[in-house]
Design goal:
This protein is α+β, with helices and mostly antiparallel strands. 44% of the residues are buried. Helix 1 runs parallel beside helix 5, helix 6 crosses helix 8 and helix 9 packs antiparallel against helix 10. It contains ten helices and 14 strands. The protein folds into two domains: 107 residues, 3-Layer(aba) Sandwich (Rossmann fold); 176 residues, Tumour Suppressor Smad4, CATH 2.60.200.
Length: 309
């Protein structure tokens, strides 16, 4: 596994990182190609070039958004995807136990093994990690519009922004129609703070939304947080601070205020409608914002092959 097609997002990290990273890659993978993205959507074009040029291994150096761009070009293709983290939160890489510095990841890359990976689909877009609507999409949009120096604060900056906007957030009323793991149809009417559909376990920076999610179980995990309540404050705290800290996690789970802060529902497909038909639904796919009148969500089992340490 010596020949890779590398796609690097130069807007992640620093320019100095990019120059030294290119030399570092060629030290370990002499016969590989290295390409830098120049604009939004360029990673998708480069992934298509990777397929057309007959490469069997694609390495994406960037954050979850960059990874998301290449998905449509490699689904059901004979290509191994390697994720080299260089973003802000690196949620998917953290879940996969990939070294969180690009050079450490690249140095160990030859030892990684391919596994099958499910992909989520929301309307016409694909996601490898998490898609969601409501408060998380609202915060993701605001976070992505922050100056780069504030975005680099990662979990701290994201959590501060979430706390600032939380009490002022306007909740929409949604209807969710979904089919569970045994094919039964269910309908939920809720005025939700947020609704997440998780293939992976976390947003990034160890902020877990669906701890029981799996990338190869043929299911998505749906997590619904209703409107403002003390329970939700604990849930948000659990997600952004305590889910990976065993001491805080134990304390939260023992709390009399909540029984289980992040309950999830396993499903194969779902449809979401906003009760106010005049409002479009703001949602995100792997942190990238979109809007639509309704959402159709489903899982594509074993749609890609991904390399794992």
């Amino acid at each position: 596994m010596d020949k890779f097609f590398f796609i690097i997002n130069p807007k992640s990290g620093t320019a100095k990182d990019n120059a030294s990273l290119e030399d570092f890659i060629l030290k370990y993978f002499k016969d590989s190609q290295i390409h830098f993205t120049d604009y939004k959507g360029h990673a998708k074009e480069l992934a298509n070039q990777c397929v057309e040029d007959g490469f069997k291994n694609l390495a994406v150096v960037g954050g979850d958004g960059t990874i998301n761009e290449v998905l449509s070009e490699i689904i059901d293709k004979d290509i191994n995807l390697a994720v080299i983290p260089k973003g802000t939160g690196n949620g998917f890489a953290r879940m996969m136990k990939i070294p969180l510095t690009p050079k450490k990841a690249i140095k160990s890359l030859k030892k990684w093994k391919p596994i099958s990976c499910d992909i989520g689909k929301l309307n016409e877009d694909y996601f490898i990690n998490i898609a969601g609507l409501g408060f998380d999409a609202f915060i993701a949009e605001k976070f992505n519009n922050l100056p780069s120096n504030l975005r680099k604060l990662g979990k701290i900056g994201y959590f501060q922004l979430a706390l600032t906007e939380y009490l002022e957030y306007h909740h929409e009323e949604y209807q969710i129609e979904y089919y569970n793991d045994i094919g039964e149809k269910n309908i939920i009417d809720t005025r939700a703070l947020m609704i997440s559909f998780a293939n992976g376990t976390q947003y990034g920076s160890d902020a877990e939304i669906a701890p029981e999610a799996s990338i190869n179980d043929g299911m998505l995990d749906m997590v619904v947080l209703p409107k403002h309540s003390l329970k939700n404050i604990n849930s948000v705290g659990f997600m952004f601070i305590g889910s990976r800290n065993p001491v805080i996690k134990k304390s939260i789970l023992k709390s009399k205020i909540i029984e289980n802060p992040l309950k999830s529902i396993k499903l194969k497909k779902a449809k979401v409608l906003c009760k106010n038909e005049e409002d479009k639904i703001l949602y995100h796919i792997d942190g990238e914002q979109r809007s639509a009148n309704s959402l159709d969500i489903k899982v594509l089992p074993q749609a890609i092959k991904i390399l794992k340490p």
